[in-house]
């Protein structure tokens, strides 16, 4: 049993006090903090380090998608260390590889590396499509000469 000094009220106390008789009544509500509901969210029982560990298994596209699902995941998915480790894993790029000495965020570095890789892939594809090839009649003549012996 608690002492009388330690016992707090278990009831909600509502107090209405008029400021003046001409003004409308203002209501003041005093609530026992024990009755306040904590800010519960989806990951209330899991700490941020565990969630970051789970998010570290995702690729960049999945990480962006997870970050757009709720505010808590948005804040966690913008973790700079998470994006930098993703850049090192997927693209083997770190901020030290860049020519300028400014601060680079991990998410921006990931997007930059992804755009550069897409550009390189497009350049390779275009280069292969524009390779001059032999005319069809020359290819046919060479093919015939392979299967027909020397004259």
Automatic annotation (TrEMBL):
Transmembrane segments: none annotated. SUPFAM superfamilies: F-box domain. This is F-box domain-containing protein. It comes from the Eukaryota. InterPro entries: F-box-like_dom_sf (IPR036047), F-box_dom (IPR001810). Residues 51-88 form the F-box domain.
